[in-house]
Structure to design on (318 residues):
């Protein structure tokens, strides 16, 4: 059976991409609702756990500004090593490896993006290799097959286009969820599964969004509210979908998806800040969140106007 987790990074900022990721694995039916922190405990652990484990936790606990990307990076690249795609040596490689077949090329309209940032950027190769081997051993012991992993990076121009078409920034999350789920479920069309999605915003009703997965599917609401639960039924399979707040605290796959999303967004923001630093040498780097983003915009505005860049190329409307 499939276990799939979905989470995002960058929904609230004014600058930089919204990144949403899905991580999936096939597990024996008796493990479909098991605690994977326990199942894979020889190789992985939460941030409070000591030792050489890969950290799988809320990305805000794994990564803290000023402490570098090594914690995120070691986990992401160890899990990527379980997939059968070529190695990733740059940010552009990483985005190419993780994009869905239907997603638009990443950041094609961002003036700051070049994709040449080398990855891994901070974690030592030996640390990644040891974590990867421990993970593969734990997965084999549990008879769990890891993958696929997908990410969608919605750059500012596309984010603003979605807002213009739908009148809501929440539509960007819906677009990404549908693309990611379609890509994951295409891997084994006859298998049942469990999908857990970290819920954001005030939406409680998701049946219309899930119906977009396939016109032939039958979406059955089981519960709608703070936590919303659905069954998506096809003639040959049933997928249970759970949307709940702070799911990265209780779902291993959601926590891992949050780490993948955060890692990609932080790499993107490094390129963002480096671009503006070359044009405005005195400007202090930003994470792109409200408040500080306003300060950053004021610092770069004269250069922005001189470059004749439209505001909606770099600044989100919502």
């Amino acid at each position: 059976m499939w276990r799939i987790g979905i989470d995002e990074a960058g929904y609230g900022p004014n600058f930089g991409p919204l990144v949403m990721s899905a991580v999936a694995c096939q597990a024996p039916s008796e493990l479909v609702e098991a605690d994977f922190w326990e199942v894979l405990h020889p190789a992985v652990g939460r941030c409070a756990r000591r030792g050489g484990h890969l950290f799988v936790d809320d990305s805000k606990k794994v990564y803290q500004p000023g402490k570098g990307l090594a914690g995120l990076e070691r986990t992401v690249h160890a899990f990527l090593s379980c997939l059968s795609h070529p190695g990733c040596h740059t940010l552009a490689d990483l985005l190419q490896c993780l994009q869905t077949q239907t997603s638009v090329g990443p950041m094609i309209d961002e003036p700051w993006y070049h994709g040449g940032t080398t990855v891994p950027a901070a974690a030592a190769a030996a640390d990644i290799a040891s974590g990867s081997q421990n993970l593969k051993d734990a997965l084999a012991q549990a008879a769990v097959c890891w993958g696929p992993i997908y990410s969608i990076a919605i750059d500012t121009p596309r984010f603003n286009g979605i807002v213009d078409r739908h009148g809501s920034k929440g539509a960007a999350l819906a677009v990404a969820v549908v693309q990611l789920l379609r890509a994951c479920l295409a891997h084994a069309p006859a298998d049942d599964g469990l999908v857990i999605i970290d819920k954001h915003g005030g939406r409680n009703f998701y049946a219309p969004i899930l119906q977009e997965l396939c016109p032939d599917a039958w979406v059955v609401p089981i519960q709608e509210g703070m936590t919303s639960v659905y069954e998506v039924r096809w003639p040959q399979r049933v997928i249970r979908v759970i949307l709940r707040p702070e799911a990265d605290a209780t779902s291993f796959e959601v926590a891992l998806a949050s780490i993948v999303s955060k890692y990609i967004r932080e790499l993107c923001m490094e390129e963002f800040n480096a671009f503006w630093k070359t044009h405005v040498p005195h400007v202090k780097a930003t994470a792109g969140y409200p408040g500080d983003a306003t300060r950053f915009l004021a610092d770069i505005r004269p250069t922005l106007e001189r470059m004749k860049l439209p505001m909606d190329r770099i600044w989100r409307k919502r």
